[in-house]
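Sequence in, structure out.
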Amino acid sequence: MGHAQGPVRRILWVYVLVSAAVFGVTRLEDVPAIGQYAHLVVAAIFLLTSIRLGREEIRHFGLALGGLLEPPTDGRPRGPLGLWDLARALRAALPSAIVEFGVAAGVATVVFPLYAIGFYWWNEPAQPFSLALPPELASLGLAQLVVVALPEEAFFRGYIQTALSDTEQKRIRVLAVELAPAAWVAQAALFAIVHLIVEPHPARLAVFFPALLFGWLRAWRGGIGAAMALHAVSNLYSEILSRSWL
């Protein structure tokens, strides 16, 4: 245990500094001209921190995304602003992306009906369900995937969960998936706490439970792809339930 204290302390310091930066940025949301970019800055803080800290072992930290976030090594021309590299990386990552989105869809078919029941029980809606989709659904979905799910999964399930797991010897199996139990629970708790810091309302702590599911998915799939997809779709699903029932 003593050998793990140093790395754990470092991980927690990273979390504290990132959380402080996120808190400071989100306080600017009401400032004219710059507030509209606060979410993009938060996303950059999470994503760039994760890539920076995991750059030497990007696959170990689950951040390769089918090779999309790995640096090119074939020596081929990069193209203007690296666009050719990006196109090749997207093409190479497509088969993996299809699989991970399929896994996320399969998990969603099990979890989403249970979530709808819990949503109804918790909110006790006074009106019957009437489907109401958010405006510009496709744009919202893309934003949830790229600006919310990718950075948060990269930091909490990619960096935090992996780094904490590396310090822990104990392993358990949950639904046939091997997990480091303390790391699995800790990443979910830290995820919930940062949500509470940004918006100090006890209900924000509820994200602890989906974070456990995302962490389980990350351990099962060996990367953050499926967790990222489920995270984005879950946010959309919650938004649709709120609009349709409340």
